[in-house]
Amino acid sequence: MKVLMVAPEAYPLVKVGGLADVVGALPKALRPLGVEATVLLPWHLFVKAQRVGEVAYAFAGQEERAPLGERWEGGVRFLLLGVPGFERDRVYGYPDDVERYLRFAVAAGRVALGFDLVHAHDWTAALLALTAPVPVVYTIHNLAHQGLVDPAPFFHWTGLPWSLFHMEALEFYGQVNLMKGGIVFARAVTTVSPSYAEEIQTPEFGMGLDGVLRRHAGKLFGILNGLDLEVFDPAKDPHLPAPYSRGDVRGKALAQKALWERTGLKGPLLAYVGRLDGQKGLDLILKAIPHLRELGFYLLVQGVGDEGIAQALRQAEEENPRFVRFVEAYDEALARLAYAGADALLVPSRFEPCGLVQMIAQRYGTPPVARAVGGLKDTVEDGSTGVLFQSYHPEGLLYGVLRLFRLGAEGLGLRGMEKDFSWAKSAEAYHRVYRLALGWGG
Ligand SMILES: Nc1ncnc2c1ncn2[C@@H]1O[C@H](COP(=O)(O)OP(=O)(O)O[C@H]2O[C@H](CO)[C@@H](O)[C@H](O)[C@H]2O)[C@@H](O)[C@H]1O
């Protein structure tokens, strides 16, 4: 089975967050099942690849051509599509994002010829559910980003008929909603944890699309993300001062020391690693700081993203110079040191489709204190490998932290290291969904 995975980011070529980890790892996990998956990404200037051809497509009524690049990484074939709009530094965050990614998706439809199936990831690739020449499986990684665009430019750019502009198709409160198109038109829809698959069918988590999701529930599947165990392995991680494993955790103490030196903090150290986004519950962390400090905790926050959140974190560091460190950087090495060297990882998300950081931390022997939502609920064993708290309130988080240390953070961390976060089972589930979408039975 030949699958074209279309996504905006994939590790190790382009990474902003967890989507990249998933798109980078899933092709490797599918290979033993006889699925040959190629990953198609926009060709950002910073990605080096070999030019292997050209793709012709129509956009806004004009014939255009884009160079096609190829690169192999870890046995996975990556194709890079050089449509205009990607010769910039950042991956997202430009006013013309919708236009750039629509052009990418239109051209991607041409690349899909010759594959059995397209697996499209998130709103940036959702258009393929309508335009790909082969069946499409669509994965929702985060319902918070839906890709909204005015109908006039949308139908002009894509050449699709206006007859699609109605409530059961693309229309969403007067605009075109690309995520909705993905859900309605894909043969099968998946999301990244069983709990999130349930939650998004409710008004609380459905972000306006819960009704659509309920109508299409028959083709909606929740498949838990895995971890690339080769990439995230404390026994082989080049970013750590010394390797360690469950049988010999001496290297973990060295990672702790290195983390303290690097940040100027001490233990007990609580860490947050991830994008700065309203989704992630950083407001709870900020409000809890005075209490955490009183209780003798140190806090490291590492991440980039929303300027308002960054500002508040800068201020918190200024007010608590000895207790709070805010590292505003995308830094793989420091992130690994935090997963290994912190006493606990905080994941107080408002909602969380799956979440990888809590899995990585457990694999590195650091217990998470996480909110009981979405994939966090599915991957943290409350009271055994970490702590889950319910209430979206600073007190909920504080209570979780205190409970973790009462239970014994170290012991829970060790138990977390035993958990199986491999992709094997989930890859099988994707394989079943692919076969279903293709009508291959079974
Ligand atoms: N400043 C920084 N420095 C270094 N590394 C950093 C970093 N900021 C983030 N990362 C890395 O980015 C990844 C974050 O992945 P998550 O899945 O936890 O969240 P994200 O919200 O990005 O993903 C979305 O998509 C994924 C994939 O489906 C879902 O799991 C998740 O719930 C959904 O919100 C981790 O590998 C983390 O180490």
UniProtKB/TrEMBL annotation:
Binding site for ADP-alpha-D-glucose: K15
Pathway it works in: Glycan biosynthesis; glycogen biosynthesis
Record's keyword annotation contains Glycosyltransferase: yes
Domain called Starch synthase catalytic: residue spans: 2-214
UniProt KW keywords: Glycogen biosynthesis, Glycosyltransferase, Transferase
Keyword Transferase: yes
Domain of life per record: Bacteria
A Pfam cross-reference name: Glyco_transf_5
EC class name: transferase
Entry-linked InterPro entries: GS/SS (IPR011835), Starch_synth_cat_dom (IPR013534)
EC number per UniProt: 2.4.1.21
Catalytic activity: [(1->4)-alpha-D-glucosyl](n) + ADP-alpha-D-glucose = [(1->4)-alpha-D-glucosyl](n+1) + ADP + H(+)
Function as written in the Swiss-Prot or TrEMBL entry: Synthesizes alpha-1,4-glucan chains using ADP-glucose.
Similarity section: Belongs to the glycosyltransferase 1 family. Bacterial/plant glycogen synthase subfamily.
UniProt name for this protein: Glycogen synthase
Source species of the chain: Thermus tengchongensis
Gene this chain is encoded by: glgA
